[in-house]
Amino acid sequence: DEVKARLANELSPEKMKFITTSMTNVYKNCPDGKEKYLYFRCEDGVFTEVSVGEGEPPKAEFVITGDYNTFANISQGKLKSQRALMGGKLKLRGNMVKALKLASLADRLNSVIANIPTDY
């Protein structure tokens, strides 16, 4: 819930360009040996759903899959998501043209997440 609250406070619909989309990050090789996901849904620039879980994630327009450590580095601001994607550290499933248009929004999202205290 803290993630959703911070996203709502720090990323206005204007900053999110009133976009409607959904995205799931699938974390492989987590420290507990399980596969986890982080799911976001945004409607007209407003985050309407943020969830974390194990197993089958909700259906999303974009699915980004990668190693836990790669996502940790992105969340800590040590690695940009575009660089990880182009370097093969992340795999994207979805419309690549739209994804490239949304890259700056993904970076804003990651910068908000990077400021939430987390144990890695």
Number of strands: 5
What oligomeric assembly is this protein in?
Answer: single chain
Helix share, percent: 25-40%
Return the string of H and E elements: HEEEEHHEHH
Strands ordered across the widest β-sheet:
3-2-1-4-5
Description of the structure:
The chain is α+β, with helices and mostly antiparallel strands and 120 residues long. It has a single domain, classed as SCP2 sterol-binding domain (Nonspecific Lipid-transfer Protein, Chain A). It contains 5 helices and 5 strands; from the N terminus they run αββββααβαα. Strand 2 (36-43) and strand 3 form a beta hairpin. The longest helix is centred in the last third of the chain and has 12 residues, at 103-114. The model has no long low-confidence stretch (mean pLDDT 89).
Summary of the model, kept short:
The chain is an alpha+beta fold.
Topology at a glance:
Blueprint: H1 2-10, E1 21-28, E2 36-43, E3 46-54, E4 62-67, H2 68-75, H3 81-86, E5 90-93, H4 96-101, H5 103-114
Parallel strand pairs: 1-4
Antiparallel strand pairs: 1-2, 2-3, 4-5
